[in-house]
Each structure stands twice: as structure tokens, then as C-alpha cells.
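Record pair follows.
FIRST:
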Amino acid sequence: MSKKIVYSEKAPAPIGPYSQAVQSGNMLFVSGQIAIQQSTGNILKGSIEEETAQVMSNLQEILTAAEMDFSNVVKCSIFLKDMNNFPRVNEIYGKYFTANPPARETVEVSRLPKDVNVEISCIAVK
């Protein structure tokens, strides 16, 4: 099976040795995104809602580069620094999946890259 690297200039560049996404056949595996603003390269320092919206925007740009959108997403993983933020993250996340939401897990972790509060990855199918 072939492997194609997917890259969007409208999403933040990877901060390590990984790709924004890898497409294999009709499946797209999107790396975890954090609240990095592509325009500045800086972490968005705001509310958990603002961080989550930035993460979802970054995911959206990568999906678009693969000619997909949130309707193609079949699985998401959400990593939270504080599970008390779950309802607030869920409110923003839910705006992107208004019908037939994907499978998902949400876990609390002790620390995330760049000390952000939320990271989300996804798998999409064309």
C-alpha cells in the first residue's frame, strides 16, 4: 500500500520529526494538533475554548489539504491537561461534528507539548 505525506502551508509546521498527516490508500492519519497559530508560529494563549478552536482550525486545514473535511473523520483522540475542561472542549469540538460524529476517546494526561491544555488527532476516510 502506498504512503503519501500530506502537508498544508495553512497549518503549523510540525515541531518534531513527524508529518502533519499521512495518507495510505483512502485513509488519512492526522498527527495531534495543538494551539499553534500558523501565521505567527506561536502558541495561542487564551481560554480553553480559544485553544480548542485553534486546534480544530489546524485539523481542518490539514483535512482540506487532503481534499477531505470533518465529515470524513471516523476517529478522534483528545488529550487534556485537565479533565475539568472536558465540557468546554466538548462544546467547541461538537460544533465541527453536527451530524454523525466520529468515534472518540478523551484522556487526561500530565503534560502536553509546549505545555498546552489540549491536543487532538484524527483519522479520516475518503
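SECOND:
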Amino acid sequence: MPATSVGGRWHDPAMTVFTPPPATAAWQHLDVRTGFEVVYLRSTPGGYRVEGCTTAVEDGDAWVVDYIIELDPGWATRSARLTSRSARGERHLTLETDGAGHWRLDGEPAPWLDGCLDVDLESSALTNAFPVHRLHLDVGAASPAPAAFVRATDLAVERLEQHYARLPDGGGRQRYDYAAPVFDVACRLTYDESGLVLDYPGLAVRTA
């Protein structure tokens, strides 16, 4: 069941409530890279459209990733179009999914992604919003959230096993324990009232 508007707030069936997403948001990269991510969000007849750009310098290399992501009303990914630019050249990628966990990369089946409902960009803090909106976890609940993970510079696509566990809210903010074992990542993510990441320890912090 998609989210519905109640009193100007988005009310989800599992009692998670978010305000409508802002028209734009931005994050500053931390630690492993230097740079920014800027994104524009808007509702569409089919759900949501996200247009963003992330730029960074990492290990002495400068790169840019532009992306357009289409989401259904429940925030599951339906398509993503990406362009990556670096000293090694320009790359393009199109991902498409039926919303039931079956994917195509540039038109070709990608069975290793079966069961994934989200796209996760290596260069993006924004994409960590997708599972939180889609899962509607109650406090104390947890869920796996495997994703189609896209590398920044070469746009290689891998299956990424992730896990989200919702904690009691702190200071009016939703908090989740997040884990991605393949990267040895385990941290606590803090979200604003619209369900966008405010603080991703060691990776990004919200600036707008």
C-alpha cells in the first residue's frame, strides 16, 4: 500500500510518519573523500523522481557522478540512469527493475540482483533514504535490505547485503543501526523528519 497524505504528513501503513521530502538537499563528503552531493526531489504521477550530482576527490582522483532515479509510490527503485566522469573517461549506465526484484543493466538481465528493491550508490548519502521509506520499520524492528550497489568511477554493479534496525527516536530524529558486512561497516544513521540522512558517520553530513 502506498503512503497517503494525512494532515500534510506522509502516513505509512506501519505507522512510520514522514513529512514530504524537501525540493533539494545536500551533503558534504567526509574522511574517505572530499566533495559534495546535491540532489533535487519531486513527486510524479508514478511516485518520485530524484536528480542528483555527487563530486569528489578520492585518493588524488577527481570524479563526478550524475544520476536520475525513478521511485514508485512506496519508494522502491524502478530505474536509475547514471553518468560517471573521471580522468579515465566517461561511462553511462541504465538500471531498470520491475519493482518485484528483477533487474536489467543496459537492457541485459542481471540475475545476481534478484530480490533487491533498492539502488545504492557508492557516492550517495541520499540512497540510504530508500530502504527506510520502503520498509516502514516500527521501533525495535529490523530487516535485511539487499541493494543493487553501483561503484562511483566505473559504474560497476554488485549485490550489496545490508541490514537496518530501527532504534528509539532521539531528539525527535529517527535512528537506525545500519550494517553492510562486506565493507565491514556498522554504524548508526540519523534521519530528519522527511526521512533523509542527516549524519552518516565517516561518510557524509547533511549541509542543506
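COMMENT: The chain has one domain: 4-206.
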